[in-house]
Design brief:
Helices cover 26% and strands 36% of the residues. With 174 residues, the protein is α+β, with helices and mostly antiparallel strands. It has a single domain, classed as Aminopeptidase (3-Layer(aba) Sandwich). An eight-stranded mixed beta sheet has the order 1-2-3-4-5-6-8-7, with helices on both faces. The longest helix has 15 residues. The relative contact order is 0.16. The model has no long low-confidence stretch (mean pLDDT 93). It holds the Pfam family Acetyltransf_3.
Length: 174
Amino acid sequence: MTGLPTLATARLRLRRRVPDDAGALFATMADAGAMRWWSCAPFDSVDAVRQHFGDGTFGGRAWAVTRSDDDTAIGFVVANAHRQAGVVEIGYLIARDAWGAGVAREAVSAVVAHLFASGTRRVFADSDPDNAGSIRLLRAMGFTLEGRLRAEWETHIGVRDALIFGLLRDEWRG
């Protein structure tokens, strides 16, 4: 996990997410509404979140989203290398009390800009077809709906389709 750069925006700082961020993010990750579209059920303990953060699922590229003046995590953005070189999948989760303030867009934009500047040629995200907020964010950032994978995920809310949104480096508007 070393070597993950800290990213800064006008209001946010994105630093390496660590297991100790579990305490700050537990309320969000235990919230059924916030976790509805996530690929796993809400967590039942801080220790379970801590273990999830430390299990290496995201290959070490997981940024905690914090406000510029406070190092407390209010969300995270992850970037998974894909099986093709130059292709990265992103995911994100922001605390409910930060919804509607542009935090997700600002944080995801910082990671996407970093990925493209580092040689990534394509970034993609999958979203549940009913996750209107995430779909709105991806479209606003210039992502294109590329397809629908039927019955792609078996989650805590049942078997779900996935909408795949992609963005190419030369399409990025920053």
